[in-house]
Amino acid sequence: MQWPRVDLHCHSNLSDGALSPQDLVALAQDRKVDMLAITDHDNIDCYNVIDRPADGLKIITGTELSTTWRNIGIHIVGLNMDLTNSTLLQGIDYQTKARALRAQEIDRKLEDLGFSNCLEGARRYSSGNQIGRPHFAQYLVEIGAVSNMQQAFKRYLGAGKAGDIKQQWADLGDVISWIRSAGGVAVLAHPTKYNMTRTKLCQLLEDFVQLGGEAMEVISGSQTNAITESMAKLCRQFDLLASCGSDFHAPSQPWAALGMAPKLPEHLTPVWTRWQ
Ligand code: AMP
Ligand code: MN
Ligand code: MN
Ligand code: MN
Predict the structure, then answer these.
(1) Does the beta carbon of 69 sit less than 6 angstroms from any atom of ligand 1?
(2) Over the stretch 53-83, which tens digit does the pLDDT of each residue have?
(3) What global pTM score does this model have?
(4) DSSP string computed for the chain
């Protein structure tokens, strides 16, 4: 068990998660989490609806910003930001518009493949909140185009597929600077999820650090000790702070259980030393 028990990456239904922000907080309290950041994709709306709970749980502000680096979709988590900062708010506004444009583009691509009314269908799943590829995936399952979400990503929405539209996002340097303007820490999210070679990941980390990035997720969801060691090595090599999070989206995904991330290796400096 992590001590303190920390989860600095999870999603509510104000992006592509299953639980409301309030239910997420309640679940974190049930799990005896000490420190939680809800990091919805490209939005901070959850912080308007959760009451700051007293019951031993410290809430850290967060968001997960979409960007690209060398045409690869990359996610940067911002933590401990002043949510009233105008640079950050303008950035979030930019990403919200980019997401809406991208949804139209995904709709067109899927239409070309013979699937109609995808935007309308995806909107039903996003319930007026931030729209993303998982909502399109849910619609593709609904109409029987695929049998599950995983297949929807594999065939139509995942990296390199027709619905993988990423050119609208702000640059890596921009998203890092928004986070920093708001006094926050920029964290490279789930470094093993980009299918990069070690060499390429090192190049990304070099650019990330040079642009003001200060931390990386050494632990993302449940992972093998070998991966943890490998990420810990990179974290030290680039002199970064270490973060950990489940990337929890829904109770049905046991590999990303809220608040259950294993302990960070001892020799790393945890990102929360920045605000404790
Ligand atoms: P978006 O934010 O619209 O780019 O969608 C990215 C989100 O899709 C990620 O945060 C995951 O929640 C989800 N996702 C990515 N790849 C897959 C996959 N292969 N299967 C299911 N969900 C995925
Ligand atoms: Mn997601
Ligand atoms: Mn992500
Ligand atoms: Mn995430």
Answers:
(1) no
(2) 667 899 999 999 999 999 999 999 999 999 9
(3) 0.97
(4) --SS-EE--B--TTTT-SS-HHHHHHHHHHTT-SEE----BT--THHHH-----SSPEE--EEEEEEEETTEEEEEEEES--TT-HHHHHHHHHHHHHHHHHHHHHHHHHHHTT--SHHHHHHHHHTTS---HHHHHHHHHHTTSSSSHHHHIIIIISTTSTT---TTSPBHHHHHHHHHHTT-EEEE--GGGG---HHHHHHHHHHHHHTT--EEEEEESS--HHHHHHHHHHHHHTTPEEEEE--B--TT-GGG-TT-PPPPPTTS-BGGGGT-
